Amino acid sequence: MPPGLTLSWTGLIEGTPTKAGSYSISVQVVDSSPTLKLDSKRVSIEITASNGGDQNLPVITRVKVKGSKKMWVYGTNFHQDSLIILNGIVLEPREFEKDGNTTQLFYKGKKRSLGPDGTNLLFVQNSDSRSVAFVF
C-alpha cells in the first residue's frame, strides 16, 4: 500500500497518502458460504501531489478511539494550538506531543457520537492550514 494508507478488513482504503508514486497491490476476496469461492486481482494506485504538495499541511496518518470520550490523532505537521474537527464538531485537544517528525493530539472530553466504521470525517486545523479529510 502507498505510505499513509491502509486496507481495512472490510475492504476500505483509509488514511492520507504521504508519498507520491505508483503502487501495485494484490487484493483477494473470499466468500465464506458453504461452497468456498475466492478471487484475486492486482490493482494499481497512483498517488500524485497537487501543485507539488505543501510540506506544511497537517497530515493525519492514524486515529485511535477508546470508548466514547478519548481519541488520539497521529500524523505530521500538527501544532501546539491545532484543533480537531470530527464530523463537523470542533474539539480542542488536551495534549500535544511531538517525537521527531511524528505529532500526536489527544482529546478527552464530552461523549462523542461516532458513526459506523468508514463514515467518520476528521480534519486537523492549524492556524494557517487544514489537513485533507481522514475517514475512519
CATH domain fold name of the largest domain: Immunoglobulin-like
When the domains are counted, the total is: 2
Quick one: how many beta strands?
A: 12
Structural class label:
mainly beta
Read across the widest sheet, the strand sequence of neighbours is 5-6-10-9
Number of helices: 0
How widely separated are the two ends? 17 Å
Q: Please give the CATH architecture of the largest domain.
A: Sandwich
Largest beta-sheet details = 4 strands, antiparallel
Q: Please, what is the average pLDDT? A: 87
The first-level CATH class of the largest domain is given as Mainly Beta
Instruction: Indicate the overall shape.
Output: globular
Could you characterize the architecture of this molecule?
- The two termini are 17 Å apart.
- The strands form four sheets. A four-stranded antiparallel beta sheet has the order 5-6-10-9, with no helix packed on it. Strands 8-7-11-12 form a four-stranded antiparallel beta sheet, with no helix packed on it. Strands 1-2 form a two-stranded antiparallel ribbon.
- The chain is mainly β and 136 residues long.
- It has no helices and twelve strands.
- 0% of the residues lie in helices and 51% in strands.
- The chain has two domains: 5-52, no CATH class; 59-135, Sandwich (Immunoglobulin-like), CATH 2.60.40.
